[in-house]
Every structure is written in structure tokens, then in C-alpha cells.
Amino acid sequence: MKRETVDVLIVGGGVMGLFLAFHLRRLGVGGSVAVVERDPRHGQASTARATGGVRQLFGSEANVRLARASLAFYERFAEEVAAVAGRAPEPIGFRPSGYLFLADERSWPVWLARRPLWERLGVEAAWLSPAEAGELLPGLCVSDLAGAVLGLRDGVYEPPAILRALARAVLGGDGFPGLGVALVSGEAARLLLRRGPAGRPVACEGVELASGDRVLAGATALAAGAWSGRVLGASGLPVWVYPRRRLVYLARPAGPWPAWDERRLPHGLPMVVDPTGLHFRERYGLVQLVEARPDDPDAFDFTFDDRPFPEMARRAAQRWPRLKGLRLVEGWAGLYEMCAFDGNGLVGPHPEVENLFLLTGFSGHGVMQAPAAALAVAEMIAYGTAKTMDVPELRPERIPAGRPLREEAVL
Hints:
- About 25% of the residues lie in helices and about 25% in strands.
- It has two domains: about 5-90 and about 160-240 and about 340-400, FAD/NAD(P)-binding domain, CATH 3.50.50; about 100-155 and about 245-340, D-Amino Acid Oxidase, Chain A, domain 2.
- A hairpin with a 2-residue loop joins strand 14 (about 280-285) and strand 15.
- By secondary structure, the chain is α/β, with parallel strands linked by helices.
């Protein structure tokens, strides 16, 4: 059994863990930093299988602020990474093509109620009548709509490219010297917890790997995505995060690619979100279809299932007849890291265990909130408090306090 000691240990080398390491170095934290990752090639990483969108159009201030700050980072991704890593990364394919939420009579008042919050926080959004939404996407069925809202700065990117770029910048490789962050390949089996007189865990001292090796640390951050709950449970702590499968389909239209108003949508087709939650966008020259389904298993299940596709394709064509005849080309299954308490991220120190920080449970919004959420935790580790990105509503202490954050704008 090997044992090593570092100043900061990050459990999870996906987008959250890598952004955390990046921000620690950006803030000038000069001690030893290590990242433990069970899957260094990221074959099962949620980011590598994500749908690839970033939007400001949330219903709670905390999520809007995280999304706005993260969007600003993605808009300047190359410059931000180059300033720390010394050279520009590969392009991440960011396009401000927008998010177009379609609302029926039931949901439209809910959207309108968010308008004061968005205006106060500076969210760029256009409020549309059904007819105006139909002008953006000619042929769109609007007979059942009460309105629509278009996120003007929102957009899409390629999550696998973000993951590759961060891994090279932080860990080194392909011409990047790295930021002096060590990669520990292995699975974190459990946290090493120091217990008080009553046997309750009071502090985290690092992790034990499945191999039996141990990594001790002054501060440990759990950013293991869907696997975070497994680590918490194996350590005797409450399991606040669990996995949920999400299916993604790529399909080809039967006819010519549908047209849209290129004057008002110069950056391409927006992410179009139906009132039912079904959403589609252009990706790789195909139509990407995604929807949260009640039969999605809460398990580490990467099984691809094409059975829901025909019904989803039918409904997409019902909304926009120019999508009629979609033919499935490929698809995959990925995992959401669901927060069991309220479906929002856990950002900050564990309420009962010292030296343990949580950066997990983002419930489908991880990539779009990662730059800002990771900055918040990096500042907590570096300064003892979040100075520039403080979202107290998302601190884990809300769970034992029974203060859920209400967020209805989820997909």
C-alpha cells in the first residue's frame, strides 16, 4: 500500500474537477494539487456524453448567476485558458445560437414571473408572441402556444472538446506543460474520515483508493459527478447524489435541412425547447433530440435504448413539420448527477466534515455551470470564503437545515 500527501486533493477529473484545479492555479495556490480519476480517458464521463448547451434562463438567482458567469467564461474560453496555461486550447465550438423556450397557456405565466429577476441580473432575453416564434422558425406549429422566450446570448458548444482542452491545460500533454497538477489514476473507494469522541465524522484527511493506496490531503474536494454518492455512501456519509441515465439521439431529416430566420438567428438554429420538455438542436449536421423521461433508470446504466426515438421524433415533427421523417443515425446514454434533495448543485464545504468540499450534484447543468461553480469552491479553499462567486443558496448546509432551492427551469 502506497501513501502520499498533497495540499489539495480533488476526487474526480471530469469538467468540475479540472476547472477546480485550473482555478486554484489561477488564484495563485502554489501548493501540491492532485486529481484522482477512475476513468482518465473519460469514456464514461458525463461531460463527454453531454448535450452541449449553456443558458441563463433559470428561475432562481443562484442558478442564473452561475450560468451568466460561466457563459462569460465560455465566450472567452481560449483567452481565459491561454492566460493561465500559456497557450490557446483547441476550439470548443461555442456558438451564441440561443435557447428558444416555447410556452403554452399553463407555463407562460411561470416564464413571465421570471422576467423581473432576469432584468435585474442583466439576462439578455427576447419575449416573443406565438406569431413571432413562428417567424423565427417558419412552419413552426404555434396554435397551442401562449408565447416564447429567446435567450439571446445563450448557445451551444462541444463538451468533449472542453474536457480535452482542460485536461491538456491542467495536466499537460500535446504541447501543454500543465499546471503542476498530479493525476492519480484510480477509483476513490472511500474518504478517510477522522471521527470525534462520539464516533461521528468530524474531518476529512484524504481518500483511500480501490487499490488500497491512500492519498492524504489538507483539503479534499469531492467532484466525482454521478459517482459522488457512491463515495459518500462508502464513507458512511449521507448519499446526497445519485446517477440517472439520459438518452441522446442524433437523426437526419428526410428532406432538405429546415430553414430558419438567419437575419435574427445568425449563429444557427437555437436549442428549441417544447413545453413538454422535448428539446432539439443542430449538431454535427444532424438533429439532436433529448428529453427527460419518467422511465430513465436511476442507476449506472449506459445501455443505449432506441425504443423512445420514434415517439420523440413524431412529436418533434408535430411541433416543427419540417422535421418530418427523422431517421435515427446514432445515439448514446450518459449519466446525470442528481442531487437527491432539490435537484441543484452542491457548492461548498460539507456542513459536518471539516476540510471536505462538495462540487457535485448539478442534475444536468454541470458543464454549463462548471466554470463559476468551480471558482466558488477554489476561492473557499484558497481564501476561506468565496469572494467573487458566492452562491450561499447552493451550499450543502441547506440539506440538514431543510432549505431546498426551488428551481423549475430544468430539462
